[in-house]
Amino acid sequence: LSDGSRAQVVLAYLAIPRDGQPYADRASAVLQAQLQGRQVNVRPVGRQQDGFVRALVYVNGRNFNRDFLERGHAWVNPLDQPPSQWYGWQSAAQAAGAGLWKDASAVHPVEWATVQRDLDRIAQGTSPLQTTIKPEQWQRVLVGDRRTRRYVPFSCRQWMTVPQRDVAIFVSPKAAQAAGFR
User: Could you write out the three-class secondary structure of the chain?
Assistant: First the structure.
């Protein structure tokens, strides 16, 4: 930081594949190769929490966050409320099949974490779901909001604003409706 202190930085506006998720190793390797041991400029944006600084990172005057997104190594994180042009850069990377977009079944890290959490609950027997969700089923999975009792498909980003404690996962409309969701 400008005062010479150190801070852990989260790349603002980006959602990077999580450990165990497809493409996570590649994204991590690119991050290390491009940033580790380099002089960077950090411009904090938005809120800071848990000791992390959410920031735009500049390397040699270039916006690393934007470059990382445009090369297809991350998604836009809608929870960060990014400026609208970030979605355009993501769409361009997706249309070009760059990076993680080479895989048509790429899953947003927020979706991945939600599904993994619910899969863990299923495995532990603490979930109301009576079935398991396989990775190839994620695109058909529905997300419910326990407060509003409504559900939407994963492809509808509306669910990303639902607090994690209120998220319910369903494998079919019939299962959601049986649980009282509409």
Answer: CCCCCCCEEEECCEECCCCCCCCHHHHHHHHHHHHCCCCCEEEEEEEEECCEEEEEEEECCEEHHHHHHHCCCCEECHHHCCCCHHHHHHHHHHHHCCHHHHCCCCCCHHHHHHHHHHHHHHHHCCCCCCCCCCHHHHHHCEEEECCCCEEEECCCHHHHHCCHHHEEEECCHHHHHHCCCC
